[in-house]
């Protein structure tokens, strides 16, 4: 097991480039299963979750080549087969193979997926949608089996705008007979990028970015070359790294409008944010001000930025209130912040944070991906040294974050336990 040893107190300064989006890359790579052609995807981040998807595609018979940040996938020899728990439990997004395999081959059997334990993320929305398209679903001994000689387009109304269910049902509708309409669909930018990728392969999908997505079934898809959009969550984490260290950090390779909710809150907190065509610059020299936050589906404040923003609020002047409306277990980082001297009180799904003048170093644990990133931010702002364990969570979503922050002036060392 590896750990980070972090010496806080250094002001970060310089430019850091955001990588391609993890949450866009994963469904795009799963969608390569829909075609017998060759798909080349640029700006794919080299993350543990991406490596798991690469392993999963290879397990199914795909030829995968991953060099630098470009992945080439040839699914011409893919065959449906039972996907074991060993692979599925490594990553939540492994469930995204359900829709494309069922749509292309008519049958699929997968184990229930794993992922961060941040709250209930059931498969029921995915399965209800597939059943309405004519699939027969059975669940036994931790496995999901789905069969359909031919999926048929229909109107699906999601109970909540689930990103994963939206993506899976889009893929199921690509090769279905007729038109599929998904209402109350998720509207995240990653789904717009996903639509662009699919349409470049020959799919007919419209409406991504709105709450109604329409998919007209086609007979087959072809080859494609695509560049993934920048990762807005990674970019946002870098922005807060600049703010929490009272530094001067420019984040390049971003789509600024994807960061609007965070930019608004940072400015409200007294941080200077300058916005360019494909970059943002964060400067913070004065006192940080407490702000209130409520996580919401896009275009609201993202739940994936909640813990990082809480790290900033622990040293802001005044009292801030953060309400988590997406996942019920997404405050597991609070006890770790308290170890570092933060003053946080929990009331149900609400955290009340009274800012302190300084955090202190401590031995803390990353409980999930975004909590791990937030603890790095807190440690950078703290006094003395912090030892952060369970950093394998962080490697799932951030590519060698210690090297990149060290280039800005941080002092982070990766060590073996």
From TrEMBL:
Catalysed reaction equations from the record: phosphoenolpyruvate + UDP-N-acetyl-alpha-D-glucosamine = UDP-N-acetyl-3-O-(1-carboxyvinyl)-alpha-D-glucosamine + phosphate
HAMAP family xref list: MurA (MF_00111)
Keywords: Cell cycle, Cell division, Cell shape, Cell wall biogenesis/degradation, Cytoplasm, Peptidoglycan synthesis, Pyruvate, Transferase
Gene3D superfamilies: Enolpyruvate transferase domain (3.65.10.10)
Family: Belongs to the EPSP synthase family. MurA subfamily.
Location relative to the cell: Cytoplasm
Record function comment: Cell wall formation. Adds enolpyruvyl to UDP-N-acetylglucosamine.
SUPFAM superfamilies: EPT/RTPC-like (SSF55205)
GO biological process terms, semicolon-separated: cell division; cell wall organization; peptidoglycan biosynthetic process; regulation of cell shape; UDP-N-acetylgalactosamine biosynthetic process
Entry binding sites for UDP-N-acetyl-alpha-D-glucosamine: 92, 304, 326
MF (Gene Ontology): UDP-N-acetylglucosamine 1-carboxyvinyltransferase activity
Pathway the protein takes part in: Cell wall biogenesis; peptidoglycan biosynthesis
Modified residues (2-(S-cysteinyl)pyruvic acid O-phosphothioketal): 116
Domain spans labelled Enolpyruvate transferase: 8-403
Catalytic residue list: 116
CC per GO annotation: cytoplasm
Binding site for phosphoenolpyruvate: 22-23
CDD domains: UdpNAET
Enzyme Commission number: 2.5.1.7
Protein name: UDP-N-acetylglucosamine 1-carboxyvinyltransferase
Superkingdom of source: Bacteria
């Amino acid at each position: 097991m590896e750990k980070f040893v972090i010496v806080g107190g250094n002001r970060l300064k310089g430019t850091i480039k955001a990588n391609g989006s993890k949450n866009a890359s994963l469904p795009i790579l799963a969608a390569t299963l829909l075609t017998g052609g060759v798909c080349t995807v640029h700006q794919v981040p080299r993350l543990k979750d991406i490596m798991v998807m690469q392993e999963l595609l290879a397990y199914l018979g795909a030829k995968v080549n991953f060099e630098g940040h470009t992945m080439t996938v040839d699914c011409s020899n893919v065959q449906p087969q039972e996907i074991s728990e060993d692979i599925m439990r490594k990553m939540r997004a492994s469930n995204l193979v359900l829709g494309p395999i069922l749509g292309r081959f008519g049958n699929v059997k997968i184990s229930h997926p794993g992922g961060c334990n941040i709250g209930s993320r059931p498969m029921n929305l995915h399965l209800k949608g597939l059943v309405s398209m004519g699939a027969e679903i059975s669940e036994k001994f931790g496995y999901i089996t789905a069969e359909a000689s031919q999926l048929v387009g229909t109107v699906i109304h999601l109970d909540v705008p689930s990103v994963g269910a939206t993506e899976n049902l889009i893929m199921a509708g690509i090769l279905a007979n007729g038109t599929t309409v998904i209402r109350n669909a998720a509207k995240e930018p990653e789904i717009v990028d996903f639509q662009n990728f699919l349409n470049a392969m020959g799919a007919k999908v419209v409406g991504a970015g709105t709450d109604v997505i329409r998919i007209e079934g086609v007979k087959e898809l072809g080859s494609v070359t695509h560049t993934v959009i920048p990762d807005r969550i990674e970019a946002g984490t870098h922005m807060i790294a600049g703010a929490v260290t009272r530094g001067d950090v420019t984040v390049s390779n971003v789509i600024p409008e994807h960061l609007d909710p965070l930019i608004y809150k940072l400015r409200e907190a007294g941080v200077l944010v300058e916005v360019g065509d494909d970059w943002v610059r964060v400067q913070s020299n004065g006192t940080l001000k407490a702000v209130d936050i409520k996580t919401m589906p896009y275009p609201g404040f993202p739940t994936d930025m909640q813990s990082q923003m809480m790290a900033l609020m622990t040293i802001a002047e005044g009292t801030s209130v953060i309400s988590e409306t997406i996942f019920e277990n997404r405050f597991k980082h609070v006890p770790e912040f308290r170890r570092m001297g933060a003053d946080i009180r929990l009331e149900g799904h609400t955290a009340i944070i009274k800012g302190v003048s300084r955090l202190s170093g401590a031995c803390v644990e990353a409980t999930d991906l975004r909590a791990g990133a937030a603890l790095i931010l807190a440690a950078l702002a703290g006094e003395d040294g912090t030892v952060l364990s369970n950093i394998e969570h962080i490697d799932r979503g951030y590519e060698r974050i210690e090297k990149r922050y060290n280039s800005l002036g941080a002092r982070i060392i990766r060590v073996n336990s």
